[in-house]
Amino acid sequence: xxxxxxxxxxxxxxxxxxxxxxxxxxxxxxxxxxxxxxxxxxxxxxxxxxxxxxxxxxxxxxxxxxxxxxxxxxxxxxxxxxxxxxxxxxxxxxxxxxxxxxxxxxxxxxxxxxxxxxxxxxxxxxxxxxxxxxxxxxxxxxxxxxxxxxxxxxxxxxxxxxxxxxxxxxxxxxxxxxxxxxxxxxxxxxxxxxxxxxxxxxxxxxxxxxxxxxxxxxxxxxxxxxxxxxxxxxxxxxxxxxxxxxxxxxxxxxxxxxxxxxxxxxxxxxxxxxxxxxxxxxxxxxxxxxxxxxxxxxxxxxxxxxxxxxxxxxxxxxxxxxxxxxxxxxxxxxxxxxxxxxxxxxxxxxxxxxxxxxxxxxxxxxxxx
Length: 369
Prior knowledge:
Elements: H1 2-25, H2 28-31, H3 56-70, E1 74-79, E2 82-87, H4 90-99, H5 127-137, H6 143-148, H7 150-169, H8 176-191, H9 206-215, H10 219-229, H11 232-238, H12 245-263, H13 272-285, H14 293-324, H15 326-342, H16 349-354, H17 356-368
Antiparallel strand pairs: 1-2
Helix pairs in contact: 7-8, 8-14, 10-11, 12-14, 14-17
């Protein structure tokens, strides 16, 4: 009987300490005198993460609108016991992302370069790891480097055009989202991983299966995303893997194979892998540390995590809106035709950059969707 009493007492003490810790953590913005939205429960500004149908982005949107309504330049919310800072003023955001970025390099997302190497990409890293990786990657993402990849992207458009034409010839219905997904997979595979996917013609293409598997909502991803956004501190302690070991090995082995093939001198392409090879050569010439194969894999992996579904969905919504707004569609088509005339009918990087109305249409799609 006494053992039960001791266990109950210990349980009550632990629960009390836990509640005190959460409540203390949820007073952070009050102590800092920062405008904030008062937490409604131990979950902070989340009603209940296990019943919550809306994601973190919707919580952030509601908080943003509330702070805009108050007319404050910034504010704070709570995801569980984690205080989250939300800049509202555009100039403040600009300073954080540019002038003062060195003070805001802690992203708070769980990652482990040793146990889960694909999680250690630029968007997850913080501190010195983030700073060093950012410095190394900066030469890769210049406008000049992106321009060299344009023809690689353009080549991926030919299978898309052929796919649409084949559907038109047979009067088959066209699934726009599926079409944009296949196109996006081809672009990411070619530009980021240096592999030809052939997604439109090969239903069993290995990279296509990998792309869909990465973005598939699985119990593992749900747990990871919960830890990532709601309890990153807990996520760092118990460490939830973002990807399976099988997927990790697939990515690393694929990239190792591509790099080995390139180093043999058999092929040179304007893509992400080629830029890494150039960085490696420069690092060796200057006796500097270069990227490891795991670090390269992590940076390439984030392309498909952050770029696959987002790009495919944006293009799908854009085409949907154009179908419903004939006037905007006509105006955009006229702009494209006029600018293409200046480049002898060829789609070029510079020509795309001149299409201001196209830029407006894309931005409006992103804003409304």
